[in-house]
Design brief:
homodimer, 414 residues, Aspartate Aminotransferase, domain 1, 36% helix, 13% strand
Chain lengths: 414, 414
């Protein structure tokens, strides 16, 4: 039996997560399927920023470093984020950018592997998010010590690329373009058995799919707070260092926030115990504070419930696109198998860029990634089943009517 | 003839910068002499943050990366900041933290010096801001290649410490504790003559004293926007790379924001031409945007006028403290000579911590740094001559009455 719009409305009426949409402000007339790039704005964010700017900065001034807990915020927010990725308290800090945190993790992993002189390779995927590759290349090249980055083309060939020469296996858990999810447990076990350390990028996982860093045996992880976690544009990222590695976590960005006694103003660096040694310099407090507004929403639910709805939304989207737009040259890129799917669905179309521009003009906001890929992110916190129906209706109209401009110039694509 | 409070009021009445105080919100009853640690809040900052959060993030969502200029902000703000430090357009970006930027500059300088295998030393002062030393130690130690950090105890002995073994001379232009200003031109010339590259930290200079990076022959510089530039707590820092070094600026934090074609999603890093290669990852947009509110105020005046008032304020403070509190054991730490003074005045007192706590309780906000140093920062944008008089009046009362608690526990001092 074919799904109807009323079926979607009925599912929304029974959806226990539906009330959470009220926690977010979205512009009227928009179906926002790009939370995998920039999460929507929690309503609480503006009030929180106002409090920080007007009261904590404007009125309380310098004493807010202590009285408003500014210094403690990277660890406090890290502790709140930890359960979403299967980490423990005292193992996560929210700080710096994903790239800078990746550098810390890679640098610390290479440092741990120094006793094994033959381990000079960082293995990753050619289809990894490019900046992850760039950071590894930058580190390897600048070190000029024989380190190299090995790019694997086929996700199923990763194991074959990890061997006695491998220092680090660096992977993004859910691919930004295809939405394909790696089996963290199996890959981490394989790497560990072969003597390689794993560094996981959770940019498209944290808040999107259940992550179990400890259970799955990861070594290090970093991630982003401004996608599925709704922390705000460019909000500080996070880094996870499990307790078993913290004492040996040596990374060169050794700023005063990572010092055992930052206000003693000693001239010798002595790293603090614990996750604090992943900190470096003073953080952008207003942007950092708003991360908590996103985390507050997650506190009202759990990743199991979010995952169930995410899979239902992406299943529905795939079903509706294939039944309603089946005559058009669309290719499903994202795995159908639940265990291998993140919280997005990607389809190719020969005119993918133009079709996405037409969708955006009609209020269905997804995005486009070379080559030919239209990305649709499904954030169960604020996306309804009726949204999915309506988005596919508009996609079908555009495709049936060929209502897209294949000559449109490609601007900077975000 | 002794200065009176009326004299101070008369100077305020004639002060062309006095109206700029209206650009800032300061709590009533407070004399804020800690702008060298956290600048006061420009009134415009809250409206700007609200615009970014409500409109650009909440309503325009992902497209704001282009339409609101988020991607371009590090360079655009860098161009606005450049004239304050004697830099040219296209040479400064506002990004990341001061520590991370210092790492980029040090790493790039060491890379430039690699052909000179004997140059393995980073020279700096033991009294430099500790995190600068930590970053150099972290880089040198983690590289494990024979690099070392040489700490100079006497500021006048710096030249003697720079020689054939020196790769980099890394100095903070104005010392955070003493307020002493280095002669950038003389020191840079000395270093250049000896084959060393200079890296200058302008944390206590940018917006505080005239800086002429090009004229004075500096090689690299970094600085802070949340002190004298009033960008907000932890606002992103800046880095300056002059055009002559940009093509050879190789630093390992090679993220996608520094790529020649960030959206081509190529797997090989190809650094962009120009200052963009000092960028790495996605920036905290709300905190970054507020930096402009501080820069807007500077656009209404110039560093020569600010410097004249800064010296008049610090001269007056020294004069009044010495005449009105002369019987107390206060020691002037900051140089009397104008050319060697920043925009702060530091005095030692055997009970400096307790006296500073008493001052803060009475609304005179300075801060304390070990050992025994009371710091008073003078920001000519929002500090009046009457403020100076009133602050000294309160200091005199506290000292004359011994109205301070020498047993007070020392908490975390910011």
């Amino acid at each position: 039996m074919t799904t109807t719009r009323n079926d979607c409305l009925a599912r929304d009426a029974q959806d226990p997560l539906a009330p959470l949409r009220e926690r977010f402000d979205l512009p009227p007339g928009v179906i926002y399927l790009d939370g995998n790039s920039l999460g929507a704005r929690p309503k609480a964010a503006l009030a929180r920023a106002t409090e920080v700017i007007a009261q904590e900065w404007g009125n309380d001034l310098i004493k807010s470093w202590n009285t408003a807990g500014w210094f403690a915020m990277p660890k406090r927010l890290g502790d709140r984020l930890a359960p979403l990725v299967g980490a423990e308290g005292g193992e996560v800090v929210v700080t710096d950018t994903t790239s800078v945190n990746l550098f810390k993790a890679l640098a610390a992993a290479l440092h741990l592997q120094r006793p094994h002189a033959a381990r000079k390779v960082i293995v990753t995927e050619r289809n990894n998010f490019p900046t992850d590759i760039y950071m590894a290349e930058g580190l390897a090249g600048w070190l000029d010590r024989g380190y190299e980055v090995r790019l694997v083309d086929d996700p199923d060939a990763i194991a074959a690329a990890v061997g006695d020469d491998t220092a680090v296996l660096m992977l993004t858990h859910v691919n930004y373009r295809t939405g394909r999810q790696h089996d963290m447990a199996a890959i981490s076990a394989m790497a560990r058995e072969r003597g390689a350390l794993t560094v996981w990028d959770l940019a498209h996982s944290a808040g999107a799919v259940p992550v179990a860093l400890h259970r799955d045996g990861a070594d290090f992880a970093v991630g982003c707070t401004y996608k599925y976690l709704n922390g705000g544009p460019g909000a500080p990222a996070f880094i996870w260092v499990p307790r078993r590695h913290q004492h040996h976590f040596v990374q060169p960005l050794s700023g005063w926030w990572g010092h055992a006694a930052p206000f003693a103003m000693a001239s010798a660096f002595a790293p603090t115990d614990g996750i604090g040694r992943a900190l470096c310099g003073t953080q952008p407090i207003v942007s950092l504070a708003m991360v908590e507004c996103g985390l507050d929403v997650f506190a009202e639910t759990d990743m199991a419930a979010l995952r169930a709805k995410s899979l239902a939304l992406t299943d529905l989207f795939i079903e509706l696109v294939e039944t309603r737009c089946g005559k058009h040259p669309l290719g499903l890129v994202t795995p159908r198998e639940h265990a291998r799917r993140g919280s997005q669905v990607s389809f190719t179309h020969p005119h993918g860029y133009a079709v996405m521009q037409a969708l955006i003009e009609r209020g269905v906001i997804g995005d486009y990634r070379e080559p030919e890929i239209m990305r649709f992110g499904f954030t169960p916190l604020y996306t309804s089943f009726a949204d999915v129906w309506d988005a596919v209706t508009i996609l079908q109209q555009i495709l049936d009517d060929q209502a897209y401009d294949v000559t449109a110039a490609r601007g900077a694509v975000t």
